Amino acid sequence: LAEATRLRDLGADFIDVGCDPGETFAGVADVVRALCDAGHRVSVDSMNPAEIEPAVRAGAQLVLSVNASNVDAAPDWGCEVVVLPDDPSTLAGLDETIDRLARRRVPLRIDPVLSPIGFGLAESLHRYYDVRHRYPDAEMMMGVGNLTELTDVDSAGINVLLLGFCQELGIRSILTTQVINWARTSVRECDLARRLVYHAVRRQVLPKHVDESLIMLRDTEVPEHGEAALARLA
Prior knowledge:
The chain is of the alpha/beta class.
């Protein structure tokens, strides 16, 4: 509970309860209920109806995720879901799942799935663009961890770039993690980045000289010392 409160204070709107694929987390309802009782908005990260159903009954408001494998169960949950393609490297099955959920009036967000560098990053960004144009009014989500967690670089710059992309496409939800050390401040970075890119896109101004909070590796200005100053130090 203390960690959830810390993440909320850093800017998280939802606390995502993860489950291990291949196993059924028997205590998921207890975890969700405790978080909800403490005032948190909770999502459950599972494809397994045996985990999702008790989590939703305990108060989870969002399910990550739904595809053809569990779409038939989704109308019974009574909450919003995130829709994934059946094949994360393509959009296979996405339209069919969206259609089935829409016919049952299940609220949804679409996540075409971001791929890591070297495994189809450019094509995955195109999928987000494609889905936005096919579903101009749909809520969308991007999970950014496939870049921030899987790239040997400090996460702040990646977060700003991806959230700028999301802002321009009207993608209003992101899922982030901060497991690996170089991404350990990703929640706070995303909270700062979303404000910066919102300002830039809405006002049509460069995201420069607005907020220095995400300039983490370099000084914004390098002081110059003339010969006189160097002589005084000698």
